[in-house]
Write a structure and sequence with these properties.
With 80 residues, the chain is mainly alpha-helical. It has one domain. The chain has four helices and no strands. It has helices at residues 13-22, 30-39, 42-49, 66-78. The longest helix has 13 residues, at 66-78. The chain is globular, with a radius of gyration of 14 Å.
Length: 80
């Protein structure tokens, strides 16, 4: 039988923001980021809208901001 996949432990919103900053995402307004992550799940926003915005090493490309991810999410939500 295959190995059991290990899941990451849950993170607080503050930890989520620190993680994003540690992998190169620019978070200009942490209070705004906290409100957004309270409304839109980390997985839905970050995992879905970070595609093609990261390098092969898993870091964000230069000058990618949290606001850009939110804008992509909102643009996509309006097209449906």
């Amino acid at each position: 039988m295959g190995e059991v996949k290990q899941h990451q432990p849950p993170m607080t919103i503050d930890e989520q923001i620190e993680n994003l900053k540690n992998i190169g995402l620019i978070v200009e307004d942490e209070e705004y980021a906290k409100r957004i992550l309270n409304d839109i799940s980390y997985f839905r926003l970050i995992k879905a809208y970070s595609l093609n915005l990261k390098t092969n090493e898993g870091r964000y490309r230069e000058n990618i901001t949290f606001q850009q991810l939110v804008d992509l999410y909102l643009f996509n939500a309006k097209t449906y």
